[in-house]
C-alpha cells in the first residue's frame, strides 16, 4: 500500500533564485509581490510551451456544455430526462461542464473568494502555521503541487482543507469557518444530486454511486488556489496538466481566466462566467463508469497583469472505499472491465505524493 508517510517530517527546501531567495514554506506569493523580480526564477521556469498561450477560438470554447441544475430537480419527467441525457453527453464527450441555476447565493460565492484572498494576504508567519507534511493533513498550506519531488515548481500557492466527513478550518481569517462550512455544505448537496443524475444517465439506480462511493463518509476537500501575477507567463505554469483523483470537482473562478482543459488534442480556455460553477469528472467516476465518463487533463496558466484565485471542492469516495466498474455497464455494454479496484486512500496518497503527470495515475488501476 502506498503511503503519504514517506514525506512526513521531510524538510521544506529553501531554493536560490536569481537575485532572491525562494522559501518554499512562505510560498511564491511573497517572491512574486516582492518587487525584486524582473524575470521568472529558474526554479519556476518550464521549457517553452508553444501551446501555453493558445486560448483556442471562441467557437471551440463556447461548445463547453452547460447543465441547468434546476432541470435536474424538475418534477416534469420529460424535463429531468433531458437534463440527465445532457449530463451523460457532457461527461462522455467533454468530462467538463458549466453548471447554472445551482442555488448557491452569489453573495456566498463572493464571500468565499474574499476569504481565500484574505488568507493568502495574511503575513507569511501566519500562513506557515498550516504548512503540511502529509497528504491527508486536515489543513495543509503549501506552494506548487509537491515541492519535495518536483524539479520545477508551479506558480501557485494553495490551501487545502478537509471539510467532510469531519469539518476543519484555519483559525484565521475569523469568518473562514462559518462561511466555508455553509459553502461546502451547499456544494456537497449539489454534488450528491449530480451523482444521482449521473447514475441514472448510466442506466443505474439513482443511489448507485452514493453506495459505491460510500458518500456518507466521502472525502470532500476545499482547495483555495492563488496564482500571483507572473513576469514571464510563457515560461510558468500555474498548475501542470493533470486529472483529478476523485469523483467530481466543483470549481469557482474569480473574474480572471486561467483554467484550460484538453479537448480533442487542443487546450481550450474555460472563461469565468458570473454565478456559474465549472464541474469536471474525476478518475474514480471514470473507473466506476468503466470509461464512459472521462476524467480530462486540465491545467492553469498565469498572466503578467493580475493575480487569480480559484476555489475547488473535490468530492470523492470514502477513504476506505474500493471502487470498481459497475458490473452492469460491462455486461450490458459487452465491454471488458477496464479498471481494477484500489482503496481510494491508496490512490489519493500515490497521486498527491508524486509529480503531476496527466492521467498517469489512472494507469495504476487500468487493466
Automatic annotation (TrEMBL):
Its main location: cytoplasm. Residues 217-317 form the Fe2OG dioxygenase domain. The keyword Glycosyltransferase does not apply. PROSITE patterns: FE2OG_OXY. This is Fe2OG dioxygenase domain-containing protein. It comes from the Eukaryota. It comes from Amborella trichopoda. Transmembrane segments: none annotated. Keywords: Cytoplasm, Iron, Metal-binding, Nucleus, Oxidoreductase. Belongs to the iron/ascorbate-dependent oxidoreductase family. Involved in the regulation of shoot development and salicylic acid (SA) homeostasis. One of its GO terms (molecular function) is metal ion binding. The keyword Metal-binding applies. One of its GO terms (cellular component) is nucleus. It is found in: Cytoplasm; Nucleus.
